[in-house]
DNA sequence: CTGAAAGCGCTAACAG
DNA sequence: CTGTTAGCGCTTTCAG
């Protein structure tokens, strides 16, 4: 490994001068700079960032804690985050927490020992010890996709309420009057907001909010499949709003087993607009969360915070967008 | 930040001794060890791994270069790799290269400056400068999913030939006699191997290899869709083997537009068994690559290499597995 | 078994 | 504008 000493010797200057040109320090004679630059080139020198970090107190590395990278939703967020990290010369360490607080804590501690400059959490539903601790230390963090109440921290998320509201309004505009809501567990705030948006749209249209049409607590495609098999025969909605794409696919699968056609017999609306929506059969109309954009914003925010700690915490709410494909149609159409 | 000096002072020993207990050095008096441990506890001390790395020459961080984390295939590999990295106390930095050699080079250089202990490449189709350079430096690397000819490096991949062979044999056992092959560009070695497996199965069954039934050079769902629309009417195979799941979905979509039912009219076989296979309609029979396993093996191998550099390079070929779902059926069934 | 001392490769005052 | 000198926080001889 060639070090700053080798360069200094080759260029006939002191290591301080070499350090100055490495870091673009302004008051270096043009001639000296050139000598140094040339020596660096010739020796194929690249500064050891570990050593630099030890003094400078930053590593240009941040951690990204997500439940599971194999979930396309988080993979998209990660892509957005990594792209902008890269743009600013940062790298990201990814950590799959599986929503396990202990795993999360272990990761956080390890990353702190490695002196990462900041952390993005795409994982916590409720405030936890880690976030509190980091917040207290004034360590740069930003939360993504899920809001956490009770602490002032930066957070970026999509407008779940508005997205659901507009999606259901669209179904109503298609002539649907009996619209079911199929969602995840209610302890997730985004589920509650999506449900609220659904109800608001109904109410605004003078339609009743029927408990029998609201099924929540569903986590998997299978759950949605079974729930639909169970509730559809009595309820017979003409449209179903599923609070995420995977649930929507479970719904569709169950409907098909009843011999129904989508969207001729029943319209189905999803949420998230992950890759699943495009792959589904029929391709799913879905409320798109700007996943990459969320990753991008979160990272931008984090880097900002890293470089300028005194900024005030902010909640950034990104708009959703209804992506119309083939799973929705006019009532009776 | 509390340092090793604080602990030493609190425990009434030298920093050398503290360092020894941190690193589990054996010859420390039990009493001393306990004093130190207690001081560490009380001060809530955690060693600065950056400083340690500067001396020890390892960071317990490795880089993972993939084309795109938002591609479920690579996301699965990443999950497998991260899990085992974590198990061994390593972290991974992920890098999306988009198959761009320049981006790759930039990442490699940056990661080297950050002193990562090793690198996994899930990206390179052909030998490139980066790999050659790293190999020459004896820097620990392992390649994954794609074989690269011309260098001796560790590589882990699935048995593409065998997988294709068995998949097509299965179609033949179902009674199919006219089986098409729909694949990616032939400059990708895995495509060539899958095609070879397909041909071997046909030949072994005494079936002709018909050029008109072999379509390659396809990259996207759209490509497969269009290609199928174009070739199906003349060729009329009773089964189609698509060399990956996304292509299979494109094929199915085109077939449905012809008013055909899957698998009653045409059987479709995919490859990879990504999440898409389960989501597809109908759920896809697919040759599964053990993606997580591949990530796991690659990481295991890398860590081995990091800790024991003189090992010999190896090529690890993992078996595939045919996952039968609903897109395949008896000929005429 | 333990401590002193020398560095890992770099940055950051401080003189000059 | 440039060099000297302290470290950053830790590991590792080398004595003892």
Give average pLDDT of chain A, whole number: 94
Helix content of chain A: 40-55%
Would you identify the regions of chain A where 5 or more consecutive residues have pLDDT less than 50?
none
State the major sheet of chain A: 6 strands, parallel
Biggest interchain interface, per-side counts: A-B, 46 and 47 residues
Distance between the termini of chain A: 71 Å
Q: Describe the global form of chain A.
A: elongated
Question: How are the elements arranged and paired?
Answer:
The structure is a homodimer of 333-residue chains.
Chain A: H1 4-11, H2 15-22, H3 30-43, H4 49-56, E1 61-66, H5 72-87, E2 91-96, H6 101-113, E3 118-121, H7 129-136, E4 141-144, E5 154-158, H8 160-173, E6 179-182, H9 189-204, E7 214-215, H10 221-235, E8 239-242, H11 245-257, E9 267-272, H12 275-279, E10 285-288, H13 291-307, E11 315-318, E12 321-323
Chain B binds a DNA duplex (16 and 16 nucleotides) through α2 and α4.
